[in-house]
Design goal:
By secondary structure, the chain is of the alpha+beta class. It contains 18 helices and 25 strands. It holds the Pfam family PRELI.
Amino acid sequence: MVQKYQSPVRVYKHPFELIMAAYERRFPTCPLIPMFVDSDTVNEFRSEDGAVHVIERRCKLDIDAPRLLKKIAGVDYVYFIQKNSLNSRERTLHIEAHNETFSNRVIINEHCCYSVHPENEDWTCFEQSASLDIKSFFGFESTVEKIAMKQYTSNIKKGKEIIEYYLRQLEEEGITFVPRWTPPATDPSLETSLSCKKPAASLTVVVPDPALKEGLSSEPLSTPSGAPEPTAGTPDDKLDADYIKRYLGDLTPLQESCLIRLRQWLQETHKGKIPKDEHILRFLRARDFHIDKARETMCQSLTWRKQHQVDYILDTWRPPQVLQDYYAGGWHHHDKDGRPLYVLRLGQMDTKGLVRALGEEALLRYVLSINEEGLRRCEENTKVFGRPISSWTCLVDLEGLNMRHLWRPGVKALLRIIEVVEANYPETLGRLLILRAPRVFPVLWTLVSPFIDDNTRRKFLIYAGNDYQGPGGLLDYIDKEIIPDFLSGECMCEVPEGGLVPKALYRTAEELENEDLKLWTETIYQSASVFKGAPHEILIQIVDASSVITWDFDVCKGDVVFNIYHSKRSPQPPKKDSLGAHSITSPGGNNVQLIDRVWQLGRDYSMVESPLICKEGESVQGSHVTRWPGFYILQWKFHSTPACAATSLPRVDDVLASLQVSSHKCKVMYYTEVIGSEDFRGSMTSLESSHSGFSQLSAATTSSSQSHSSSMISRWRFC
């Protein structure tokens, strides 16, 4: 594999001619580079007017490698050919170098360039690129590659120091100004290359200057966060080292190279807007600066952002009032490192109510808007605090967390949100402070943690009870003055307190689809209409015995009877029921019937659970451990009143009521899932005991235990 390196633009705040005078002092040898033993001039050319000077040297290097490896290779020194092409007229120096030793086994190429800064002719820019391709090396290819990269990066770091050293040496000798080249016809008497004239520029050399970027009126190298990105292909779209240090942080030479190469690739291949530099850097960090992996994930994210118009979400989307009232989270000042601080009172939030009232897509969109706002706040804090801030801190208060938060559809929606955020907002979480974790937290953590990246998990700090108030607690990360009041702090926190979402705000899947939220292509919940004489049925095929069927449904209108049947043979393909002569459709949901009218109970199919009567407004959650493979049918049937069921003869009132079909219509919203029994063991207990947790949300709670030992059904009635 070919290793490549591309440096940022390093800016020296000195004229080109003075930098060249300092550079020439590196030859024939440089004591600041111990591995650079000596150099001999092989070829030299100088134009008649003196504007062009080309010199070729053979450089002798003492590579810091294991003695055994040198003995196997049969060499003590490595030789490189370096060709320097100085053009004083254009004020450029191009340096090309390649290895002479082992050139048939290892190919090393390097190109460097000194040139005048495009916006300030008294400044000098330096760029460097290199490639390493090891064909074969006595079976030590990997070792040689590591040694070469280590040596190269260490010399890169020294490059700037060496120029600064010789600039100071020139100053000590009284040389502070070098005149520019002029044509002989204009000034034939000009023969000296150095003089001691009044300096034209300060000798303060290459000091990181936070204001450098702001001082460049047309942003020649790169723009800070929030400024327009330069267009691809222009000479002014390069990153300089001072900008990287000021806005992106301290990076190793190889990390800088990965950033620049990926940025260049994006400019070449993506004709539209590319991410800001700090966001590109996040993808690289998330993939340990593996440029190919970072490129793949970033391209997927760019496609996703474009498809769903995420860049405009803060300007075009307003959170529903339900979220503003019941989503217990919000931004709250910043931590001690200057990171934006987001507070989430998860224990006080009705996750089930939010999913039922809004759907997963609206919740996802809200979480995306939070992340987009976080990116914006990071940019602002970078400018305010004068240092790179690319992530935020999240404070999660778990007081009030109980079994109701382990509601499986809610956890599943959470996992989907985590998946989307991990894929598109990597390395945005700087620290996660989890406070007042209750005993039930390990169960939730077991469900969620496998979906969280290892790098992210290492940023979690978990405190049980009041441990956050002791040493190593909250005060180590957040100033006392901004600790929220609900954590015994002094600062009033404007984050909503959450609470129970009114059941009147619950909506069906069809109603949610009408909102035209297309960020996700599927919905956890489906809705169905149940009519008298026309139950709604769904088919679940079980291949392995002891699988677990789980369900969760709300009875939105009317009373229904819930049944579970088993059949060894598959029913006919589902058909939409038109209710015969009534020709009644189901605008509020599907109505599918699977059990053929000619089937007989006990012969063609069997009941595996006792019927469960569910009243309007009830939420039912349960599971069934299957005993046999085959086909299981979950059925919701219209529940008739006892008076109607007492006699086989219809009453006059019943006949009249049958003409008003709307009174014989029920609505249910349901979710089902089939999982292996081995994966369900950890959730059996939570489902069995979840009614106690939900009782805190409801005004009245009922529970029902079925006689079948392999099944658990629990339900809650919200009044």
